[in-house]
Amino acid sequence: MRMTVCVKQVLSTGEVRMDPVTNTMIREGRQSVINPFDLHALEAAILLKERLGGEITALSMGIPTVEALLRDAIARGADRAVLLSDRAFAGADTLATSRTLAAGMGLIGGFDLILCGKMAVDGDTAQIGPELAEALDIPHVADVCEILTANEYSIQVRQAAGYGFCTLEVALPALITVTREANRPRMPSLAGIRRSRTAPLRLADSGELALEPCRMGLNGSPTRVVKTFVPVRERVCRPVEGSPSRQAAALLDMVKEVGI
Question: Which candidate, 120, 136, 115, places its Cα nearest to that of 178?
């Protein structure tokens, strides 16, 4: 089975810095890790590979330093990686990102199953997976918490749906997004780390994609962040004095002021 796992970079710690002109997140020079949900998608792919055989390609769009994260994905069990990196991709919203990833799939050489994390922890939109599937015109299932069976023709999954679950079967090729409950991601092995240093990793820019400039990056994004700010929270300490009954009455007045 030919599987592709989409890997996203998220900032690990520290205050998020925003570009004052484009209102997009500044990722250069910041410590980053693989999006935690994507690790569950990678583990799901590895488990399928152990059962059915095949090959796993890790795909990402990001700045050049994302190569280290893709090497980490290889150390955990991916076979190779493709990094789409170009300043033309900067500032992309979820739609422009999914278009770029869809174009990048053409560099992989075919696939049976695409696995994405349910969402990115820095955006929480959960849109990339479904949008990528729509761009590729393939069936998709979101919020997969368990892969039940799979073969060369179809995959059967359990989907978290509200307060219950659905069992669904879709024909391949297809895309699924994976939740945290699906598995427990493994750590990189020593042999995997050694292999990741020399494993094939392709770096591609916008010139290698069959995608018009107006459909990628900030120019290809129909949604824009027009303003970012940190909410101002003021805390005022107001002493309550007097007898217990006076204090109770004062506290009641304070509750009424804040509308509780």
Answer: 115
Helix (H) or strand (E) holding 147: strand 140-150
Tracing tokens 């955006």 back to the chain, one arrives at: 123
The Cα 92–Cα 109 span in angstroms is 25
Q: Are the C-beta atoms of 59 and 42 separated by less than 8 Å?
A: no
Per-residue confidence (pLDDT) for residue 231, from 0 to 100: 75
d(CA 7, CA 67): 11
Asked if residue 231 has a cis previous peptide bond (ω within 30° of 0), the answer is no
**Could you tell me how far CA 160 lies from the centroid of its own chain?**
18
Its pTM stands at 0.82
**Which letter does DSSP use for residue 242 in this model?**
S
7 token code pair: 């890997």
Rounded to 5°, angle at Cα 64 from 99 and 55: 65
Can you say whether the dihedral through the CA atoms of 7, 99, 143, 1 is positive or negative?
negative
Angle subtended by helix axes 94-104 and 128-136, to nearest 10:
50
Q: Are 60 and 108 in contact (CB under 8 A)?
A: no
Q: How many CB atoms lie within 10 A of CB 223?
A: 10
| Domains of the chain by start residue, with CATH | 2-215 (3.40.50.620)
Which two structure tokens, joined as six digits, stand for 157? 């999954």
For 10-43, how does the pLDDT look when each residue is reduced to its tens digit (9 = 90+)?
865 545 555 666 655 555 555 788 999 999 999 9
23 by DSSP, 3-state: which? coil
Task: Answer yes or no: are the C-beta atoms of 99 and 212 closer than 8 Å.
Answer: no
Please state whether 17 falls in left (phi above 0), alpha (psi between -120 and 50) or beta.
Answer: beta
